[in-house]
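Record 1 of the preview.
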Amino acid sequence: MNYHWNWAAFFDVSLDGAHTYWETLVMGLGWTAATAVGAFAIALLLGSLAGVLRNVPSPWLNRGGSAFVEVFRNIPLLMQMFLWYFVLPEALPKEAGDWLKQLPDAQFYTAVLCLGCYHGARMAEVLRAGLESLSKGQRMAGQALGLTLPQTYLYVLLPVAYRIVTPAITSEFLSCTKNTSVALAIGLIELTGSARAMQENTFQVFEAFSIATLLYLLLNMTIVFTMRGIEKRAALPGYGKKG
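->
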């Protein structure tokens, strides 16, 4: 293969005329991190709500939680991204649709919401598994103390369930971070989009994607080590590893 390596291309001025390609990659990393954090915050909120709904002793609430999970978990993520960005504005009333189309950084907000719902459905199953691993006596004890069912979940069951499933939450956060690359399909210039732009304009494909890979690795390893510390602090005696 006759390929001309040119690492100096990172210091050439990009098409925006204001930044080098290295700077655009770093800005892309920033968009990736912001999208992942925003989306996972929504995923935790929606996942907690749907996970509780799937665990409470109410068939109607169970069905509502199940509907959310099955819809967002079983439609491909790329298809959901297109639906949120291209279809939703057309399905809304004209004024609301026009407002969405003209929203600054609409690609970012769309990606955050789409990934939040998608991973929220997955988080619901993670949290449901954590809740179902608890003994029924904990719920009964909370209600015996005079707590309502929502208070029992909020103050008794959820704090313990979160600590049990912290490793699974780490995996889901990593998955959410990697899935931000799908937002390239709707025009968000995150890290993969920045590497793609450099590759198309300089033809230095190996350099662009090699550095992008290292930046993804750096971001994900930061998440792993941070969450590993949280896992150690959250570990409960009698759960997890034995021996």
